[in-house]
Prior knowledge:
By secondary structure, this protein is mainly β. The protein has one helix at residues 4-11, and strands at residues 24-30, 36-41, 47-53, 65-69, 75-88, 91-100, 103-114, 125-129, 138-146, 149-157, 165-174, 177-186, 200-208, 211-218, 226-233, 245-246, 261-270, 277-284, 300-308, 314-315.
Amino acid sequence: MITPDKLSIKINKEFKNPMILQRADPWVYRHTDGYYYFTASVPSYDCIELRRSASIQGLGNASPKVIWNKHETGVMGAHIWAPEIHFINNKWYIYFAAGNAEAIWDIRIYVLENSSSNPLEGSWEEKGQVKTNWESFALDATTFEHKGVRYLVWTQNDPKGPQGTNLYIAAMENPWTISGKQVMISKPEYEWERIGHWVNEGPAVLKRNGKIFISYSASATDHNYCMGLLSTSDSSDLLDPNSWNKSPKAVFETSIENNQYGPGHNSFTVSEDGTYDILVYHARNYKDLQGSPLADPNRHTRAQRLNWNEDGIPNFGVPVED
């Protein structure tokens, strides 16, 4: 009998990890043209790059193209973090976080738009900041559509609340504008979410088996970084915080045995034949860091199969060895 862990290891021989060196916060999107599109945080935090390939493994050898550079002054001038690419209403959009050149920790969410069929071509227009219900540290926006409504899910600090960052959801009136009130659906409440820093960030959405899942990352970006999971029925009110259930334990975390430390900030995609789901994430292959974790460039992009339990809940398993 093949156990889930052994199955994961067997399947993951399809992927040579690390898949892409020194790319954190990886985002992979498979488009209807058959290509996988990839973007991520670069170690210099000063630009956004894209690459594409007909296979997931091929992304590692694909030539990256810088499609946007940070501003020299003012907004969008520092800490260019965690870009995501989405295809909405026949246009491409990139959501990313950026600080101000003169105030690098004044980080907010911004959007780029491209109407070309191939996002590595054409021009990217700055649509500006996604204005949330209040001004504060905000990042890691993702978007999805459900029952004709587009939603934004993101990370933000509540200046009037407890320390740390929370996850919020809101409906959208267009790809760069939320409508109505934002609702908090998760906050750092367990010990594994509060190591080093109180963190809920990096949400990624997966719809399967009559449910909507949101994975997210927690704690400091060193070896304590790990992932949690929210879930709700696809028939529930997504803007009701009581609709969301939260796993009391981390669902994906450091594996000392496999030399994988601080796995997190994931995205989801599917295999080339569309038969199984794939988890894409970053991790380091060593524990001890010199200086700030954000200054260490060796968070590498990795991929492995995402398995499913009989009850329809994803089974993340453990990060496989290089």
